Amino acid sequence: MDDGTAGTVPHDDATTTGAPPASETDAPLLQLRNVSKHFGAVRALVNVDFTVPSGQVTALAGDNGAGKSVLIKTVSGIHGADGGQILWEGRPVNIRTPKDAAGLGIETVYQDLALCDNLDIVQNMFLGRENRRFGFLLNEEEMETAARETLTSLSVTTVRSIRQPVLSLSGGQRQAVAVARAVMWNSKLVIMDEPTAALGVAQTRMVLDLVRRLADRGLAVIIISHNMNDVFEVADRIAVLRLGRMVTEGPATDYDPAIVVDYMTTGRTDRTPQAASAPGGATAGADGRGG
Length: 291
What we know:
This protein is an alpha/beta fold. It has eight helices and 13 strands. The longest helix has 16 residues, at 201-216.
């Protein structure tokens, strides 16, 4: 892994730099300031500013190749930023690995979910973080209890048994397991990459409700989606990347789907919002292409 930026004290490997600002308690959970990332001659991120408050859903939109995946992988410790600064709870910090990010409370649910079909729900939720007794015996009872309580707290009630193989779950249920795994470890920020891709109407509704419940619990959520209806269904804030640059970000009420698509394709707009967009109320509009 490359060396990157972002983190705070909870994990020993994530280093905090500088003294905390006086207004730290009022600071957003995550801030990117002039963050850049390049791969050879390709400038994937260019002086990106990005703000993610706690208790809100921030939608990250952009066309294919806009830099969305690079941005979330930089925050998640997979890529190292080549310039700029990332602040966590108001403190400038460094994240070098995904383990560092997890230690800070940053969990990412990628589009492929990274679930093992041959394992059951409990085994997937604790994969790589198994609870052990005496250092070598799996504490099955405690893991089952924690898995059941986490799913219940997220109002995930459609699974038949927490011991059923993930292979037997629907797309929406698999997404719910991946999210439950993410929030079980004292998470503060959950990043979700295309969470409703290839889901049916009922499963999409289940996942969007789950996203709102995360924010209602006080977690920060970043959601990447090319579906504008889904974005305006759940987002409190919207940010748009274009060709590696952040062209706009702000409250969802400042946008409508057509405006977002304008920013995605041209980097500007002459439109004004046609209707107030608020989480929980779908706004009719267009789809943008994500990537």
